[in-house]
Amino acid sequence: MHGELNLLHPIAPQQSDTLVLDALTRYVAQSGTRVGEKLPPERVLAEGLAVSRNTVREALKRWEALGIIVRKKGSGTFLQSEVTANDSFLSLRFKNDSATMLHALEVRRIIECEASALAAVRATESDLLFIEQKLGVMEKVHLSVGSAGAEDWQFHAAIYTAAHNPLLLQMVGGIYDLLHAFFESPPEQALFSDSFPLHRTLFEAIARREPETARRLSNDILNITERDMKEVINAAR
């Protein structure tokens, strides 16, 4: 029934579920699976991608939340939304849930600008060293592979920690999943490159104890994020 399973190719076992979903997107598009048709079992997909069944299961949960698939107990997983070869998890997310993504960014802006200002006032010397360490890792990865989504998140999380209000990190953590695709977009979708140098400028403002400058720079970074998001939304339509 699924003779096209040779279209599945192993991916590195430590890759994120975003990349698993991109691999599944290519499979669905290339195999010609149509809306209403059944996908192979999780076991078969996991074997084809050389990842664990749990990794595939977690990835499919993201598709299910977006309405791309429907999972019927006892029957299997069925395609519910059209998937093309040009799609990625990022574009599918925007096709199906762009409004929520932009709302999540708006919430992040409200929290993050103030968290940066608080960090400029409250950060200890050890906090500053930790933020700078995360910044260095982000810069190294970005310059090496063209993007550093996971490392970028660690940098911003260090700033939240330095604000010394644990609720701030918990609050933004609640919307992190909505922005997950952006933080883990692969290098060929290198987003937000224009904001890359602003991250060091932001750290320097925090280290100089300049809350207003830190607040403004955080807003500038998120302006670029919003611009790039809207470009992806328009391209996905």
Automatic annotation (TrEMBL):
Domain of life: Bacteria
Residue span(s) of domain HTH gntR-type: 14-82
tRNA-binding found in the keyword field: no
Record's keyword annotation contains Transcription: yes
Alphabetized GO MF terms: DNA binding; DNA-binding transcription factor activity
Keywords: DNA-binding, Transcription, Transcription regulation
Gene3D superfamilies found in the cross-reference section: GntR ligand-binding domain-like, Winged helix-like DNA-binding domain superfamily/Winged helix DNA-binding domain
SMART domains xref list: FCD, HTH_GNTR
PROSITE patterns named in the record: HTH_GNTR
Pfam families: FCD, GntR
Name the UniProt record assigns to this protein: FadR family transcriptional regulator
